[in-house]
Amino acid sequence: MQIDDLIKVVESALDELKAKDVVRIDVRELTSVTDYMIIASGTSSRHVSSLSDNVVEKAKEAGCRPLGVEGKGSGEWVLVDLGDMVVHVMQPATRQFYDLERLWQSAESRRAQQQQPMPDAE
User: Which InterPro entries match (predicted)?
Assistant: First the structure.
C-alpha cells in the first residue's frame, strides 16, 4: 500500500468517529523509525479506544497489518504502529502534557536551521 493511500485510510478512520485536532507530521527527514506521525485526540478513554480500534480495522481492510498497538489498557494514549506511519490517539490532557507536535516540529525547525549555509563573516 502506498503511503498516500494509508494516510487517507487513517485520516478517514479518525474522521469517521469524530477524532479531535488531527495533525499529520512528516518525520522522514528526522527519524528512520517511521515516515509520518498522525496525532489525534479522543474525548474519553472509551473514545480513544474506539478511535484506535477503527484505525486498526480500516488499515487491515485496506491490506495494511499493524505492527503493534500499545496502551489500550489505560485509554489515555494508544499508539498504533503501521510501519511507515505511527498513529497516536490521546486524551487532551495527555496530549497537552507530552506535546508531541512541538517536540517533532521543533526538531524539524532545528534540522532546517542546521542545513542553512552559515552567513559570510565580514
Answer: Iojap/RsfS/C7orf30, NT_sf
pLDDT tens digits, one per residue of 47-67: 999 999 999 999 999 999 999
Indicate the number of domains in the chain: 1
Instruction: Tell me the torsion sign for CA atoms 79, 82, 84, 85.
Output: negative
Domain that holds residue 86: 3-109
Domain CATH for 57? 3.30.460.10
Which pLDDT value is given to residue 113?
57
Residues with Cβ within 8 Å of residue 62, at least 6 apart in sequence = 1, 5, 6, 9
Backbone CA torsion sign across 13, 41, 34, 57: negative
- Report how far residue 31's alpha carbon sits from residue 18's, in angstroms, rounded to the nearest whole number: 29
Show Cβ contacts of residue 82 under 8 Å, excluding neighbours closer than 6 positions.
6, 10, 59, 64, 66, 67
Q: Is residue 30 part of a domain?
A: yes
For the residues 17-27, what does the mean pLDDT come to? 95
> According to the model, what pLDDT value does residue 115 have?
60
